[in-house]
Design a protein that fits this description.
With 451 residues, this protein is of the alpha/beta class. The chain has three domains: 124 residues, Methylthiotransferase, N-terminal domain (Rossmann fold, 3-Layer(aba) Sandwich), CATH 3.40.50.12160; 236 residues, pyruvate-formate lyase- activating enzyme (Alpha-Beta Horseshoe), CATH 3.80.30; 57 residues, Nucleic acid-binding proteins (OB fold (Dihydrolipoamide Acetyltransferase, E2P)). The protein has 13 helices and 20 strands. Helix 7 packs parallel to helix 8 and helix 8 runs parallel beside helix 9. The structure holds iron/sulfur cluster. Iron/sulfur cluster (SF4) binds next to helix 6.
């Protein structure tokens, strides 16, 4: 059968981006060719997101658009988390769908597409093996990375064993599945050989790495190995750590290994113990105070990012005000916040005290307003410092990039006048602070490329 062209639409989080890149690698390796416009493709592939209602709506909307534009000789395949969560229901929602493959078996994409294209009957086909208890281990040699310029996401594990009451991930992905360290280190060596400057480690719960493959303090151990294997890499960044699982060993490793960014992403979700208990999340607020204080003492330039959900079922005005006080006390550098999304298939969906949408929104606005002044104050502390900046672009006379304090896609930027070399690290002396961004100029003695 002649190999054909495919178009891939990647939706959702950085973990889904990695799955999309891995599927592309398998398709390219088996002779398929990627095209950037759906009209020119023989196979239309959408890697969907099923995390919350809004994300599911976007996935369905995108699939329907592809289905409406689909030509007679084209096949439309839905992959990813919504496929895993809904299976046949997705085909009911999207007439014209030819195949549905679950996120747990992304590595079967080539065989599945060939089967769909070769089928004799018009009904859609499904690849959702019931015995796939979690994301498959056999990666068929496909790198588990998503490269963006001089930076790359590297997935070290998939799935999750935590009981968070609002989350669909364990239902979609299954329990925690760590990748073998050697596989990860091979990818790190390859990426750094290609001139990569930043490695962003991702998983659903980074701090649980190794727990299912018998490695104690697996993340700290892996970080030591990564820094050993890639002495040339500038930044190793940690995303999605779990409260209560940031160990002293991990903190030591962050202090001792200069490549590891003094940056910690630790979604806390709330600041009131009663709300956290209903969320089935770690509710030891003292642990948070102590651990962040310990980390800031060990790394005075530490940048802490966290995430909160407002309007969780049963959240009272008092609980919300405790969250506001907590945010005031902790002075986080970066805060992402969301209104609770009703998820019928999670324990929280059945909980009493569902909060009205307008109350959720009003609380979200108050929280972000509170954090705005804190973010500004935290940024103002950077004025006068010289920050290594990974240059990522240029626009209207200004270059922009990120410092160790900025994760890709979610945090702020460093903005400097002039055209700086994209993909390179440039020392920028910070002379101004905004709520989320910093401004500065190339530190003295640094050659500047003229326009
Ligand atoms: S730790 Fe994260 S991915 Fe795991 S269940 Fe909780 S919210 Fe979901």
């Amino acid at each position: 059968m002649a190999k054909k062209k495919y178009y891939l639409l990647s939706l959702g989080c950085s973990k889904n981006s990695v799955d999309s890149e891995s599927m592309k690698r398998l398709l390219d390796a088996s002779g398929y060719t990627e095209v950037k416009s759906p009209e020119r493709a023989d196979v239309l592939l959408a890697n969907t997101c099923g995390f919350i209602g809004l994300a599911r709506d976007e996935s369905i909307r995108s699939l329907r658009e592809l289905a409406e534009g689909k030509q007679r000789n084209q096949q439309l395949i839905a992959a990813g988390c919504l496929s895993q969560l809904w299976g046949p229901r997705l085909a009911q929602e999207v007439p014209g769908l030819d195949g549905v493959i679950g996120t747990r078996r992304w590595m079967d994409i080539v065989d599945f597409i060939d089967t769909v294209r070769g089928r004799s009957r018009p009904e859609p086909l499904y690849h959702l093996p019931p015995d796939a208890a979690t994301v498959g281990e056999d990666e068929r040699g496909a790198q588990r990375t998503a490269v963006q310029g001089a930076s790359a996401y590297l997935k070290i594990a998939d799935g999750c064993r935590r009981p968070c009451a609002f989350c669909t991930i364990p239902t979609i992905k299954g329990t925690q599945k760590s990748r073998q360290p050697e596989l990860i280190l091979n990818e790190v060596r390859e990426l750094t050989a290609n001139g990569l400057r930043e490695l962003v480690l991702i998983a659903q719960d980074l701090t649980d790495y190794g727990s299912d493959i018998g490695i104690k303090d697996g993340l700290a151990t892996l970080l030591d190995d990564i820094c050993q294997a890639a002495p040339g890499i500038d930044w190793v960044r940690l995303m999605y750590t779990y409260p209560g699982a940031v160990t002293d060993r991990l903190i030591e490793t962050m202090v001792q290994r200069p490549q590891i960014c003094h940056y910690l992403d630790i979604p806390l979700q709330h600041g009131h113990p009663a709300t956290l208990r209903r969320m089935r999340r770690p509710a030891n607020i003292d642990w948070v105070h102590r651990t962040v204080a310990k980390m800031r003492a060990a790394m005075p330039d530490l940048c802490v990012r966290t995430t909160f959900i407002v309007g969780f079922p049963g959240e009272t005005e008092g609980e919300f005000e405790t969250l506001l006080d907590f945010v005031g006390e902790m002075q986080f550098d970066r805060v992402g916040a969301f209104t609770y999304s009703f998820e019928g298939q999670t324990p929280s969906g059945a909980m009493p005290g569902q909060v009205p949408e307008e109350v959720k929104q009003e609380r979200l606005d108050r929280l972000m307003l509170k954090q705005q002044s804190i973010s500004l104050a935290r940024n103002q502390r950077q004025v006068g410092r010289t920050l290594q900046t990974l240059v990522e672009g240029y626009d209207k006379g200004f270059s922009f990039g990120r410092s160790y304090r900025d994760a890709p896609e979610v945090d702020g930027l460093v903005i400097a006048e002039g055209r700086l070399p994209v993909g390179q690290m440039v020392p920028v002396r910070i002379d101004g602070a905004l709520e989320y961004d910093l401004t500065g100029a190339v530190a003295a003695g640094q050659p500047l490329i003229t326009l």
